[in-house]
Amino acid sequence: MTIAIRAADLGDAQVIALIASHQRDMLEASPPGTSFALDLSGLQDPAVSVLAAWDGKALAAIGALKRLAPAHGELKSMRTDAAFLRRGIARLMLDALIDLARDQGITRLSLETGSGEKFEPALALYRQRGFAIGPAFADYRVTEFNQCLHLDL
User: Fold this and answer.
1) Residue 56, CA distances (Å) to 3, 22, 97, 137 in order
2) Residue 83 is part of which domain span?
3) In terms of C-beta density within 10 A (0-12 exposed, 13-18 middle, 19 or more buried), how is residue 72 classed?
4) Considering only CA atoms, which of 123, 117, 129, 118 is closest in space to residue 147?
5) Predicted confidence (pLDDT) per residue in 50-67, tens digit
6) In whole numbers, what is the pLDDT of the chain averaged over residues?
7) Residue 79: CB partners within 8 Å, gap ≥ 6?
């Protein structure tokens, strides 16, 4: 397996399908009003850079970086296709997004995510990479379900 990570083509059918699957899954796994997963139009915002991880012609994962301020970025839409789970692709994507943030002059990365069993694998990955739970940012609120994590680069 050779994974190539590059800018995502948001018109690609596999990319569109994985984005839609991610959004559906987040809505189903979250209490009403607590999911902030971006849909395709949200990922088309000029402040958002979307990456795709490919194994040949098969889409393995997506991830996005949203610039909030000159030195502050937010991770969005981290999603690995079910066929590629537990192969280290999420770690590759996270590292690529961190590298992209550094290349853009971002010195602080933040993310908002949920709580519970469904979110534990992602939370473990973020913690392993140095993210720590912290205060709310942007328009988010910390709730019993929602939490915010931060990493200084």
Assistant:
1) 7, 21, 20, 37
2) 3-152
3) middle
4) 123
5) 999 999 999 999 999 999
6) 97
7) 18, 19, 21, 22, 61, 62, 63
- Asked if 104 and 68 count as a contact pair (C-beta separation under 8 A), the reply is no
Domain total of the chain: 1
**Count of alpha carbons within 13 angstroms of residue 43, beta-carbon side:** 27
Q: Shortest CA distance to 129 belongs to which of 150, 112, 107, 144?
A: 150
pLDDT greater than 90 at residue 75: yes
Rg (CA), the chain: 14
Confidence label for 1 from pLDDT (cuts 50, 70 and 90)? confident
CATH of the domain at 47: 3.40.630.30
Is residue 42 within 8 A of residue 96, CB to CB? The reply is no
> What pLDDT does 10 receive?
98
The single-letter DSSP state of residue 117 is G
Q: CB of 94 within 8 A of CB of 63? A: yes
